[in-house]
Amino acid sequence: MIPINAVFGLGLVLFFIGLVGVLFRKNLVIMLMSLELLLNGVNVIFAGLSYILKSPRGSIFAIFVIIMAVSEAAVGFALVLSYFRQKKTYDVDELNDLKG
Amino acid sequence: MSSAIIFYFFAALAVVSAVLVILQKNAMHSVLYLAFTVLSVAGVFLSLQAEYLGAIQILVYGGGIVVLYIFVIIIVNLKEIRPEKRKFFPKLSIVALPALLFIQIIHVLFTNRPTPPAGAETGLEFTSLAEMLFSNYLVPFELASILLLAVLIGAIIIARRKLLHDSD
């Protein structure tokens, strides 16, 4: 039996790493990858609760989270591509076109 | 006991490679470590008896998203990218959020909580998952298909080289 604290710990640590990546990196592609890490951490906690409560509901929720992650990655990459065509950079500090 | 050993093994792999993802300077190296992380998390799912979730993780993440990342990095011309500017002293507001989350992690890890009793659910088998997915969660399932269709069309339109009104 896997202890509940270990599962929560793994999920939270993955979420923490992803959060640090999103906040501290300035490369748009690596920020999107960190978003995937965030969603993976959430999925680990869902799967762990599903395992501990012996209920399939956590797995079903994690499946919907994966669907959202795929959608977010596809639209995010479309935006990154069209942004890169105009600005020739990935750096989010250059994303100041709307600044007055 | 053996499932716990497998869980800890894949958990350690996932954490180490996730740290390596956000430390790489080259985005392509990051993608390779991301693939490693995703496959390790699939191993964690398998050790948690979520076999369907593990298979979906390998197929969708390992087969779909990682390849999408690699294609995008290849499509853009890497020589045209200006180097990333870095600040060594990030703002307090950026540091505060991860610090709070870190305190939360410590709190969760070192709180002893009893294992909750198993509910009156039907168990972890494929059949119960499928029955529940196609009965209780049928409406979200259908909405997810509409979402995927919208994403398919939207991503194509956003990533087009020309805008719609000046394509003719």
Explain this structure:
Chain A has 100 residues and is an all-alpha fold. Chain A has helices at 4-24, 28-53, 57-87. In chain A, α2 (28-53) runs antiparallel to α3. The longest helix of chain A has 31 residues, at 57-87. The radius of gyration of chain A is 17 Å and the shape is elongated. The relative contact order of chain A is 0.14. Chain B is mainly alpha-helical and 168 residues long. Chain B starts with a helix and ends in a 9-residue tail after the last helix. In chain B, 21% of the residues are buried. The mean pLDDT of chain B is 83. Classes of the chains: A mainly alpha (100), B mainly alpha (168). At the A-B interface, α1, α2 and α3 of A face α1, α2, α3, α4 and α5 of B.
What is the beta-strand fraction of chain A? Answer: under 5%
Helix content of chain B: over 70%
Number of helices of chain A: 3
Q: Could you give the count of β-strands of chain B?
A: 0
Distance between the termini of chain B: 66 Å
Low-confidence stretches of chain A: none
Quaternary organisation: heterodimer
Major sheet of chain B, described briefly?
A: none
The fraction of residues in strands of chain B falls at: under 5%
Elements of chain B, N to C (H/E): HHHHHH
In helices, the fraction of residues of chain A equals: over 70%
Report the count of strand segments of chain A: 0
Counted by DSSP, the helix tally of chain B is 6
The two chains with the largest interface, and their residue counts, are: A-B, 74 and 84 residues
Broad structural category of chain A: mainly alpha
